[in-house]
Write a structure and sequence with these properties.
By secondary structure, the protein is an alpha+beta fold. It has 8 helices and 6 strands. It is globular, with a radius of gyration of 16 Å. The structure holds uridine-5'-diphosphate and magnesium ion (MG). The site of uridine-5'-diphosphate (UDP) has 9 residues, from loops.
Length: 171
């Protein structure tokens, strides 16, 4: 099934200039970008995005992490993407690897580049929606509908075509 999923390149990855690497790996997985922007993450957005973790001891530090407060001025924000493709949710999770960097496959992004801080936060390179329902909720949180390009399903599932049917604001 063709799915949409949310990907965030987190501040630790921005600080290490890993953006190109992440985008390359997701392209290799056969996925297409249908939405993209830089986001200065507000307190409200951070809390809403991670509301399922609000009772965890690491929550305050997690909020600081996703707001970019731990990685210096040049990384104070995240890159947000909507990716589309066949089984996009699971494919992105596979490229990302397990949540805990030490348990993640060493060839995955989190296994290769993630770490756990002394304050107990897993800095793990990217966020990836964990299932289709979460993807729908999160895409609605981070993107307005008109910010997502309307690719035909055939395009998203077929590497030989890459022309959007209609791009908002285009010719
Ligand atoms: N996290 C953490 N410690 C934990 C669990 C999660 O620091 O014990 C952080 C980590 O950055 C993770 C994010 O909280 O990516 C969201 O947690 P979730 O369980 O949703 O994992 P994910 O879906 O990102 O793999
Ligand atoms: Mg999650």
């Amino acid at each position: 099934m063709i799915e949409n999923t949310l990907v965030l390149i987190k501040p630790d990855a921005l600080q290490r200039n890993l953006t190109g690497h992440v985008v390359f790996r997701l392209a290799q997985a056969g996925l297409y970008i249908v939405g993209a922007k830089v986001v200065q993450v507000s307190d409200a957005l951070a809390h809403e995005h991670y509301k399922h973790l609000r009772n965890k001891p690491f929550f305050p530090e997690l909020i600081r992490y996703i707001k970019g407060e731990l990685h210096g001025k040049l990384s104070s924000g995240v890159l947000a993407f909507v990716y589309r493709g066949e089984n996009a949710v699971q494919k992105v999770r596979d490229v990302a690897g397990a949540t805990h960097p030490e348990q993640a496959d060493p060839k995955s992004l989190r296994g290769a580049y993630g770490r756990i801080t002394t304050k107990g936060v897993m800095e793990n390179v990217i966020h990836a929606s964990s299932d289709p329902a979460e993807a729908q909720r999160e895409i609605g949180l981070w993107f307005a509908p008109e910010e997502i390009v309307d690719l035909e399903p055939a395009v998203a599932g077929n590497a030989s075509r890459s022309v959007p049917r209609k791009a908002k604001g285009g010719l």
